[in-house]
Design brief:
19% helix, 3 helices, alpha+beta
Length: 156
């Protein structure tokens, strides 16, 4: 009976915490990143507004900071022809497949105090993550067909 109780307590504690894979991803994502490029899976010229904020041209070169201990971050648009400045967000990494290491990444814009002014969030696939690079994919529907936006980051 005592062993059964210890086993149940152990399972409870393990299931309540983040998985090792998610904890490792949060550790890896911590820091300052630069969004180096934004690409699409279809050729052509598209007028895409990323995160309901700015165009691809404005986002390229933007700087991002992730603080995983409280799941917050900022990004700053730096292009002078754009609405420059710092934006705030909360993020969550949810494990999708531990074998492939792919995740769903939920990013919710907030104000400076961390409060969401809308109930809007963006689900993005964390496609690749290493010590020096990160890749996100967001799939949206355009004329009923999937349109994939890929965002490539490098660690500063």
């Amino acid at each position: 009976m005592k062993h059964l109780l210890i086993l149940l307590l152990t399972v409870t504690f393990v299931s309540c915490g983040s998985t090792k894979t998610v904890r490792q991803a949060k550790k890896t994502i911590k820091g300052n990143w630069t969004l180096t490029s934004v690409t699409y899976n279809k050729t052509g010229t598209y007028n895409v507004t990323l995160l309901n904020d700015a165009s691809k041209a404005c986002f390229e070169g933007s700087t991002w900071q992730f603080v995983p201990n409280n799941n917050t971050g900022t990004y700053a648009i730096n292009q002078t022809a754009c609405n420059t400045g710092e934006r705030y967000f909360n993020f969550t990494i949810q494990e999708v497949d531990a074998q492939t290491g792919l995740y769903d990444f939920l990013l919710k814009p907030t104000n400076e105090k961390g409060k969401s002014e809308t109930n809007q969030g963006f689900r993005i696939k964390l496609k690749a993550l290493s010590e020096t690079s990160m890749q996100w994919e967001q799939t949206v529907l355009v004329d009923g067909a999937p349109f994939v936006i890929t965002m490539n980051f490098t660690l500063q």
